[in-house]
Amino acid sequence: MGWNSWNTFGCGITEQIVRAQADALVSSGLRDAGYTYVVVDDCWMAPTRAEDGRLQADPVRFPSGMAALADYVHARGLGFGIYAGARGQTCAQFTGAYPGATGSGGHEQVDARTFAGWGVDFLKYDWCSSDTSHGTQVSAFTTMRDALRATGRPIVYSINPNSGVAGSVPGAEFDWGGIATMTRATNDITATWSTDSGPSGYQGVTDIVDAVAPLGSRVGPGAFVDPDMLVVGVGDTLTPADERTQMSMWAMLAAPLMAGNDLTTMSARTRAVLADAGVIGIDQDPRVQAGAPVGDDPEIFSRALGDKGLVVSLTNRADHPRTMSVALADLGFTGDTVVGVDAWTGVRHQASGGRLSVEVGVHDTALLRIE
């Protein structure tokens, strides 16, 4: 759990912005709710390496340097994250949005040591190439994994093998759990309900859910499928129901929760969605088991919690409110003694006639812990 700069600030990121976001994580209570990593995405680096071959921060936007920024973040009880490209360029450089060629391909050992020396706790490592060779990708991501391990510093390793790749994306096609802590299974999310786009284009909330749902067996302690960052509070295109559904489904998928909004200007509603203790508790359940559709229904998921717990989500994808229900038999229960307690509202729903039913608004999700 944490915050990433890209969705709101892109290549306009500065050390002043990062410091302000770190402060806001603390003052808003989100740090105490579990959002503990501050990740500086692409465009933090100078377009060229230093004379000794090391990466260096952009001197205008990050004049204090990355080690000083890490110190600032650490002093607030937070972890510091950084971004790098797995090839010769970062993704912004690959697309021509940022100058230079300062990817980590061929520089893995020196870059890993540099990151560790700066106090980095989290590395987002992006593919940024149209080369679709699986062997080449495995070699690149494994080389950086081994270089990070060799530093002796614990660093969360978050990879995206999909950037720049058209068609079937490698993050979904292959299981990367032996290489990375987190693996992106789709291309980038955008703040909309659905784009009806394929895997190589920007995708909305439901597109991402449908793409990641079949990959639940890959999730376990230390290996997470990453459905991309939260778009809660990013722009004004999502409704409150849309945002609750993203949080609910990321929790059902046991996914990382990386906020991407401007924390210094977020509304009380956005903060309430991001900080909801009931939903975060489901997401962070120590069983670390992703949920799956019930009977292949994309609107209804179940997820095992703890030793004997169960949570069910019912998402209304229709354009009108409706009563949604799930058969208790499909959840492994008999009789009508089952109660579903909504994690968002605390409202208790008693099963009847062998089914658990609840009214769900347009694009909203009922997230029911089963008793």
What does this structure look like?
The structure is a single chain. The chain has two domains: 2-283, TIM Barrel (Alpha-Beta Barrel); 292-370, Immunoglobulin-like (Sandwich), CATH 2.60.40.1180. 28% of the residues lie in helices and 20% in strands. It has helices spanning 6-9, 15-27, 30-33, 66-74, 91-94, 108-118, 134-151, 170-173, 205-212, 240-252, 268-275, 277-283; strands at residues 2-4, 37-39, 79-85, 122-126, 156-160, 182-184, 224-226, 258-259, 292-294, 297-305, 309-315, 322-327, 339-342, 348-350, 355-360, 365-370. The strands form three sheets. The chain has an eight-stranded parallel beta sheet. A six-stranded antiparallel beta sheet has the order 9-10-11-16-13-14. The protein has a two-stranded antiparallel ribbon with strand order 12-15. Strand 9 (292-294) and strand 10 (297-305) form a beta hairpin. Helix 6 (108-118) crosses helix 7 (134-151) and helix 10 runs parallel beside helix 11. The mean pLDDT is 96.
Short description:
This protein is an alpha/beta fold.
